[in-house]
Structures are given as C-alpha cells and as structure tokens.
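fyi for ur records
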Amino acid sequence: MMLPLRRDSRLGGSDSYGSRRAPTIREVSSPETIKYVLSNAAAETSLARLVQMQRQRFWIERSFEDGKSESGLADYQVRGWRAWHHHMALVMMAMLFMLEEKLLHKQSHPLLSCSDIKSLLAHFLPRRDVTVEEVVRQMEARHKARQKAIESAYHRQSLDDAG
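which gave:
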C-alpha cells in the first residue's frame, strides 16, 4: 500500500531543475518503516508519475540480480574499457535472449525464470548428461515451489491489509 506522496520544503527548496520532492512510501511488509525517496524531477511531474517510476525500481533491481547470477554481469576481469564494453554487450544480449524466451513461453510456462532457461540450455546444448524428462521435472518442481511462495505472499499481504 502506498501512502500519499508529499513535498518536503525542508529538503532544499528548488534549484534549476525544479523543486525537489520527497515521496513518502510505506512498505507493505513493515508498516512501521517509512522510506523516503528523493527525486530531481521537474516540478510539473505528477505524483502518479513519481509513484510509477519508484515502483519500477523493483523490476530494475531484479534484472540486475538476474544479470549477475545467470548472465555473468558481475563476472568480468578486464583491463580496459573496450573489453568491458564487449563483455557488457554480450551480457545484455544474453539477458535480451532470456527475456524474449520468457515472453515467448508466457502462456505455457508463466513462471519461467532466467535460471530455468539456463538449465534448459545447459541440457540441450552440447552437454547431455541429464535426460529431458529430468530437466522438465526439476523445472516443474521449481515452478510449484515458486507458485506456493507467491500464494503465501498474497495470503500474508491480505492478512496485513485486513489487520
């Protein structure tokens, strides 16, 4: 649940970019914790737009986690900018591939993750020491566990909202 956003003039008034804002956001998991988010958005930026931008942050952080754990975003040992840029370009292409696969299979496997795609690729590319059935069984087991976690989170959230 999001609380109304408010401007806080104590944060420095305005500058050449417009007024600074401090949206106040209450986290659902912890009602007593209040987090402040500073923005240098123009004064004309609506509160709804600021809320939307803040809510997108979770998905951006999630993509960085996936990139680090599944695509090698943090696994570079380079000595120059050119090598770093090459590595980042390859990681971004791998992440794009995974996103396109998730979107392509959204109807048949809605919980498909980057880890699942990596497991499938590990099986179907040259190395074949695990059977197709075993890969699918492991993926379905992860999906069941993930679905239970989602349902549990919704249940806890509904109890928090009711209480």
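Confidence is low (pLDDT under 50) at residues 1-18. thats all i got for now
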